[in-house]
Write a structure and sequence with these properties.
The complex is a heterodimer of chains A (about 160) and B (about 850). Chain A has about 160 residues and is an all-alpha fold. Helices cover about 85% and strands about 0% of the residues of chain A. In chain B, the strands form 6 sheets. A 7-stranded mixed β-sheet of chain B has the order 7-6-18-17-16-8-9, with helices on both faces. A 6-stranded antiparallel β-sheet of chain B has the order 1-29-2-5-4-3. In chain B, α2 packs across α21. The relative contact order of chain B is 0.17. Classes of the chains: A mainly alpha (about 160), B alpha/beta (about 850). The interface between A and B is medium-sized, with 25 and 30 residues. The structure holds iron/sulfur cluster. Iron/sulfur cluster binds next to loops of chain B. Iron/sulfur cluster (SF4) binds next to loops of chain B.
Amino acid sequence: MNGITLTLRALHHGERHLEDELRAAAERHRTEHEVHHVALDLAGWSHEHAARLAEAGRHYALDLDGPPGHRDPGGALTALREKASQALGRRPEPGLLLLHDLKDLYLAAAENSLHWEMLAQTAQATREPRLLELASSCHPRTLRQVRWANTTIKNLSPQILGAL
Amino acid sequence: MEASVDRIADPWGGRTPYARGAAWPVRTDTHLAPGTTTDEVDRWVQTASLLHSNGDAMDIAVRDGRIVGVRGRAADRVNRGRLGPKDLFGWQANASPDRLTSPLLRDGRRLVPCDWDTAMGRIAARSKELLDKRGPGSIGFYTSGQLFLEEYYTLAVLARAGIGTNHLDGNTRLCTATAGEALKESFGCDGQPGSFTDVDHADTLALFGHNMAETQPVLWMRVLDRLDGADPPRLICVDPRPTRVARRADVHLAPRPGTNVALLNALLHEIIRTDRVDGEFIGAHTVGFEELRRRVASCTPEWASAICDVPAAAISEAAGLLGSAERLLSTVLQGVYQSHQATAAAVQVNNLHLIRGMLGRPGAGVLQMNGQPTAQNTRECGADGDLPGFRNWQNDRHVADLARVWNVEPSAIPHYAPPTHAMQIFRYAEQGSLRMLWISGTNPAVSLPELGRIRSVLAQDRLFTVVQDLFLTETAQLADVVLPAATWGEKTGTFTNADRTVHLSEKAVDPPGDARPDLAIFLDYARRMDFRDKDGGPLITWDGPQEAFEAWKRCSAGRPCDYTGITYDKLRGGSGIQWPCDETRPEGTERLYTDGISWAHPDVCESYGKDLVTGASVEVVEYRSLNPDGKAVIKAAEYRPAHEEPSQEYPLQLTTGRTLYHFHTRTKTGRVPQLNAAAPEVWVELSAADASARGLAEGDLVDVTTPRGSLRGTLRITGIREGLLFVPFHYGYWDTAEGYGPSGEGPGRAANETTVTDWDPASKQPLFKTAAARLTLVRRGDGVPAPAPTTTASAPARPDGIRPTEGGPDARATQSTDVPRGDSTPDEAARP
Ligand code: SF4
């Protein structure tokens, strides 16, 4: 495993993770309508990124999709939802859970962003135009995911925290 | 020449054709109460229409202290004397016997009359208690698009600097939020670029989701007169319904709802591919063209055709007309604003004009339209999700400047986040952090999406609701305190139409009973709350409309919407005046951006923009590096599928909208005999092909069901696109047994029982055009047709046996093309 395959793997994992987290947050916060709808849109971006990473991985003999059945989105989601409702039960205000989820989404997207940065840098250094192209077409969307989480936290936190 | 016309049967009246570049001839429309003659009128009192956004200028006829009719103002630039059906007949609602005449207070399940002191005392006491215990974020205001400028401005000052809450918005959110947002995205600032006079000069007109014939009938008369004159313009219509506009169009595109961005990207693709762009204009006045070129490179007409379900050849043909226009006027309204990707699509229309250099010249302009009569004023006065005077909440210098005008500390004006939009205000009320909601001049219990949810929010015990209105609306019936308000004709103030024309509306008669002008109510509240400036003086220093107007002028000084050159006196007599109007432009400003883009500079702009998909705010640093010189921003957008697509369970698409004869939730127009008779009950439109596939016929009673709920209406078979249902959203419950919601048996009749709670992330305008629905038969109609007008987009596909919509003798109005004498000669009005 070299640096490129290492990064591809981390990134693929990270995009899938973010997709799952976005879908779980959308599910948990159905009554926060904008968060719900936009999170689903943004999950679509991560889904597409993961598919493109898997496709790129094939050129480096990486099987990122894993064996069939390896990933069970339904199962993963159910687990996440369970975790969520537990969390919900523990927390006094669903608003706090929303801020907590948005913070996690921000961090997950920021981590992906750093990995895209690493991939782009390595691709340049090792002259891998295909990967550079991939990074420059996906990374901007990751940054938009980061900014979305940031703006949403910024706009909602005064009311949620102020009303405690 | 004088003629008498049934203006329900013939809503647009007779033609006065004119050639391109000529002045629109005068035609004075008058309607007086049956039996009243012009000689018997005591006084004519100046005003403009409050039942749509066109701002048709008119005079109210007063006899023995009562309103007895109206007459269009020939001198005015907007209508040159013409009036639409709602203008001609709508005044009768003022004298309805069921006007509210006294404040009401909730006592258990009932609302009981009380005096003003008791009602206002209760509101002030609750406000103080909440401020004390829960802070300013627990109080919110939801206002209208029908109050006057002076009232919005006063409300903005008392809410933002008095209470210190960020939660103030208007129902203009449903209506015009995307117009404002699209202008901010492209030009850095709100402000209508074009002018209605562009109709006189255009060689090509493109109407995007804008059923002008019904929403702005007088502007449509102007277009009809051009179409019948020499050198008529070519007309392009984008609308899924067979509107009057569509019937007159050279090219009619009826896209699948929710696909506007795909269609517009294909039009842009064709214009770029055929090199119909104005490179010089792009270079001098814009940033972002390369990104747009890349984004639309693959958006061929064939690609869009598959998404929009419109023939690729028709898209190419439309692009050909747009690309070869020398004077292109585009207009945009709810078909774009209330649909999926609202801001992204509206911005692509701006882009069309930016890349073709079609801006700032007679006939070359964009009109991002408004729905409501005074929507423009909520936007500029800061009574919606903006700071007053188009100031930028992210720019500390703008906030400091506003604080200077109000003589408060900048920290007294909440600006830590964008002002809260209406949908979020309701969310805060739902979730319990907002405990008092003051609703003025609007009826969310009928007009907001997902009514079941809205009713449950409003009915909560922990939420203290104040409703200020003319009638006991559906919303008022759920209130804790109801305040009776005066309306148009009963109070004085100004308002501004969709092409920046400011009109004065003077008091003609006294309001009924104890009803009071909205301004007087807000001022009373401010006094009781004892709001202070930073030196301990009163925060609000004015006492009547004219003083409030002067205060607003000081707030607007030097801003794009500069009113400093306008006075009440200047507005009396002649024509309305278009802002900006100041010392250097004493006659106002017909078109913006005649010498390049003026307000997009990072230091000046109202907004740094947003991400059109995520709604994330752009920060100043980013904006500065993208657009250091303040040019127009060409913002590309990728098409994304709608959030709710048809499925097996819900195989049809559902879109809601308006009809010519009603305004908003019918609180006024439903009480006007001629208008009510023209469209008395809700109906459901379906195409002939869909009807025969389901074995349904005209007049059948059907239920329309979505995941939110159902509504029941009568079927009208029209030429609407296949797969689509249309339901007018005007009908609520005030004139039914239940009063504010559906009764126990079966679904209600309000379209918004079925609509989805989802909004455009950039403009926060709710989506009323893209829901998935199913249709079920309740009962055969046995040949009785639907109660839908035949004169409009609801015209039956097969007219046989369906009685045409008529108004009869009481719906006659005179139209005169004689040039009136006296102080309002048309030449005076014929300013270039
Ligand atoms: S009907 Fe209501 S929402 Fe629609 S445009 Fe008119 S005022 Fe706006």
